[in-house]
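Structure (tokenized):
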């Protein structure tokens, strides 16, 4: 590995944080990897400038999809935008590039914003309080290989 590769990896690992949808354990592991790379390649903090390209700061749809599946919901997405139908007249709209989400209710041609926030954690809190509960005899587990 060259110094350029280490710098690129450090920049990418700096994006692994809770605000971007990573778990605390993932963020902690990323911080350890950053320290290790900086020590091994003698990289000074000022040498690691943020990348100008925002494609590295985007989250993965995996976090949002897993969260929706935990509540028995299905995530549909295209590009940087996604949606989750919570019930017949309520839908969540998600922007992957910013982590912003909002829940809208549409009735009689009017749309009302019920909630909005930023990040997977706040959306999880909303779904825990407001999403319909699904129960089965086998528990509320969904397979990773569920049908799409």
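Design, position by position:
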């Amino acid at each position: 590995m060259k110094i350029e590769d280490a710098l690129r990896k450090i920049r990418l690992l700096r994006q692994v944080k809770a605000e971007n949808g990573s778990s605390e354990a993932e963020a902690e592991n990323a911080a350890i990897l950053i320290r290790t790379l900086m020590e091994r390649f003698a990289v000074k903090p000022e040498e690691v400038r943020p990348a100008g390209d925002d494609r590295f700061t985007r989250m993965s749809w995996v976090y949002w999809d897993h969260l929706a599946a935990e509540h028995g919901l299905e995530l549909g997405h295209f590009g940087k935008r996604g949606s989750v139908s919570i019930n017949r007249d309520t839908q969540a709209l998600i922007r992957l590039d910013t982590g912003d989400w909002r829940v809208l209710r549409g009735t009689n041609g009017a749309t009302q914003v019920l909630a909005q926030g930023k990040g997977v954690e706040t959306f999880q809190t909303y779904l825990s309080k407001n999403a319909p509960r699904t129960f089965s005899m086998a528990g509320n587990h969904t397979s990773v290989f569920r049908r799409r």
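Reviewer-requested clarification: Residues 53-57 have pLDDT under 50 and may be disordered. The beta strands are 75-78, 81-87, 90-95, 100-107, 110-118.
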